[in-house]
Design a protein that fits this description.
Layout (H helix, E strand, L loop, with lengths): L7 H6 L4 E6 L5 H4 L1 H9 L3 E7 L12 E3 L2 E4 L11 H11 L6 E4 L4 H15 L3 E7 L15 H12 L5 E7 L11 H13 L3 E6 L5 H16 L6 H10 L25 E6 H7 L3 H4 L5 H14 L11
Parallel strand pairs: 1-2, 1-6, 2-5, 6-7
Antiparallel strand pairs: 3-4, 4-5, 7-9, 8-9
Pfam families: DUF1152 (PF06626)
Protein name: DUF1152 domain-containing protein
Length: about 325
Amino acid sequence: MTSLHTNPLFDRLDSAERILVAGAGGGFDIYAGLPIALSLIHRNKRVQLANLSFSALEGLPLDSWLAPDLAVITPETSLHQVYFPERTLAQWLALHGYPGRVHALSRTGVQPLRDAYRALIERYDIDAVVLVDGGTDILMRGDESGLGTPEEDLTSVAALAAIEGPDRLVVSIGFGVDAYHGVSHGLVLENIAALDRDGAYLGAFSVPRTTREGALFVDAVAHAQEHTPDHPSIVNGSIAAAVRGEFGDVRFTSRTGNSELFINPLMSLYFAFELEGIARNCLYLDRIEHTHLIRQVSSAIETFRDEVLQRPPRQIPH
C-alpha cells in the first residue's frame, strides 16, 4: 500500500533503471509521454522512446533498422516526407541537449509488433515499460457505444501483455479529447472505476505548467506544430493548451475549424494503470491476438462489435 503523499506511478518506476516510454496509438502519441520521460531522465534514469508510427517507414535507409518492424530515428534520418513525428521529436530532443533518438515501430498486427517490442526490450535490457495514450480510447473495453480509434492502442496493449519480465504500465492523458471520435467520457469514468475495483488503477496526477517538464512539453508541442503545419496534433495541442491554463474553445490549428473545443484542466491529468489490468478488461483482446496486419485488427473488432450488446453513452451531470 502506498502513502497519500507519494505518486504511485513514479513509486513503481523508482527501482527501474532502464525504462521504455512508448506511444501506443501512433501519430504524435509519444509526445503525450514526454513529461513522464523527461521527469525520469531528470532523475538519471536511462530512458528509451518509441512510437507506433504512421510514417512510411519502408522508405528508411537500411542502417535505420534494428529488427523487423523496428527502426531507430535520429535528427538526420532521411525520409522524404514532412509528417514524421518521430524525427521531429528527435530533432527537438537534440536541440535541448537530450539524446536525439526515437524508435519507430511499424503499424502492424499483434504478432509482428510483439516481436518488435521484444527486440527493443532485449536490446536495451528494459526493466519497465510505460505505454502512453494521448486520449482515452485505450481504456475502452469494447462494448461501449463508441470506441474512438482503438486499433493501434489495443494492438500495442496486446503485444506487450504477453511479454514477461519488465514492469508494464499504461498512462492516459487528454481526458475529453476523444469526445470528437464518439467516446462517452461517462463510460470512460465507469471503466476507470472498474479498473480500480480490479486493482489495476494507480491514480491520477497533473502536469503543471510551472514544472520543468510541463514547460518543456509545451515547447515540444509548439516545435512540432511549427514543423508539421499541415497536420499538427489536435490531441497534444489540446493537452498543451490545458497545461498553459487555457479554457474553452481554444484555437491552435485550422484543423479544428468546424468543431467547438472544450479545453479544460482535466486534459492535463495523467491516469495510470497496470497494463495487465487493461488487457484483462478488454473484451476482444483474444480476437486480435493472432493478427499480423492492422486491417485484420480492424476486422476483428468490427466482427466483435456486431455480436456484443453495446452500453449506451453515460452523461456526466452538469
